[in-house]
Amino acid sequence: MEAVKELIFDRLVYSCAFEKVRGMEEFIPEHFLGFQLAGETHAFYAGTSTIIPENSIVLVRKNQLIRTTKYPSKSGSYKFVSITLDKEVLQKYALENRIRAAARYEGSQKLIFEPDDFLRSYFLSLAPYINKTKEATPRLAELKIREAVELLLQCNPDFHTILFDFSDPFKVDLAEFMNEHYMFNIPVESLAKLTGRSLSAFKRDFTRVFNAPPKQWLLNRRLDEAHYLIKYKRQKPVDFYLDLGFENLSHFYYAFKHRFGQTSSEVRAYGPATDQRHP
């Protein structure tokens, strides 16, 4: 059975599954607050992997790439609810409460924390909307976001440097960013935004740094990693092609043969058993 991902109202999303589900790459344009009701979520982002266990809360910062895998609990279900803390509501809240972030947040990307009684009760209060026993008006939806903000600041006042930072993304180091995120299959426009550049500036800087256009470099980088996994790790393409950003196996096999002059089976059959990357 496939996962159910349902938009309850314009900023509240409920996900439910009864078997392991691999999620697709997602570009997160706004902060969101999530609660793991049942099961656990394995998330890959910012070059690292993390596990969101049952009964924990996660605050995910805006402008990130995330890939998730959903695992049901022993009872057989996976349930996750999230609410988007969108820029418009946060700006209104900051203006009304005379809040100004003094500096950018420089802490860890990993923002998982045990819920206090107030935050736990907050997510339980969303049950009527999830169960469709109550309908949320646009005004009520905004009030629920404001309530989440109040509770977050009560839990950790330092979160104001995250929530109320309305500046544009930094212009990040392109080589470092791309080598951490090459496996995400997202549009070039999203990559440009994440690196703090316009699309034209991104393409110009990319060609200068890598001596190749973005799409060609991404394909070659993914194929080079695939070659390493096949030759030295003895892995099969079916086990990793999605994780490297390929949409289907037929495209992967064609591109691999075209780049290396051998099929993946031939490389795997005659490749050395020792790992040349990590002797």
Describe this structure in words.
There is one protein chain. This protein has helices at residues 87-96, 117-124, 127-130, 138-155, 160-163, 174-181, 188-194, 199-210, 214-231, 237-240, 249-260, 264-270; strands at residues 4-9, 12-17, 21-22, 26-28, 31-38, 40-45, 48-52, 57-60, 64-71, 78-85, 112-113. By secondary structure, it is of the alpha+beta class. The chain has two domains: 4-163, Jelly Rolls (Sandwich); 174-270, Arc Repressor Mutant, subunit A, CATH 1.10.10.60. A six-stranded antiparallel beta sheet has the order 1-2-10-5-8-11. Strands 3, 4, 6, 7 and 9 form a five-stranded antiparallel beta sheet that branches. A hairpin with a 2-residue loop joins β6 and β7. The N and C termini lie far apart (43 Å).
Produce the secondary structure layout.
Elements: E1 4-9, E2 12-17, E3 21-22, E4 26-28, E5 31-38, E6 40-45, E7 48-52, E8 57-60, E9 64-71, E10 78-85, H1 87-96, E11 112-113, H2 117-124, H3 127-130, H4 138-155, H5 160-163, H6 174-181, H7 188-194, H8 199-210, H9 214-231, H10 237-240, H11 249-260, H12 264-270
Antiparallel strand pairs: 1-2, 2-10, 3-9, 4-9, 5-8, 5-10, 6-7, 6-9, 8-11
Helix pairs in contact: 7-8, 9-11
Shape: globular
Q: Gyration radius, to the nearest Å?
A: 21 Å
CATH architecture of the largest domain: Sandwich
| Mean of residue pLDDT values | 86
The description of the largest β-sheet is:
6 strands, antiparallel
Number of domains: 2
**Would you tell me the structural class of the helices and strands?**
alpha+beta
CATH class of the largest domain: Mainly Beta
Helix content bin: 40-55%
Spatial order of the strands in the main sheet? 1-2-10-5-8-11
Structure annotation, total helices: 12
Q: How are helices and strands ordered from N to C?
A: EEEEEEEEEEHEHHHHHHHHHHH
CATH topology of the largest domain: Jelly Rolls
Strand content: 15-25%
Number of strands: 11
Keywords: DNA-binding, Transcription, Transcription regulation
Organism: Siphonobacter aquaeclarae
GO molecular function, one term: sequence-specific DNA binding
InterPro entries: AraC_XylS_family_regulators, ExsA-like_N, Homeodomain-like_sf, HTH_AraC
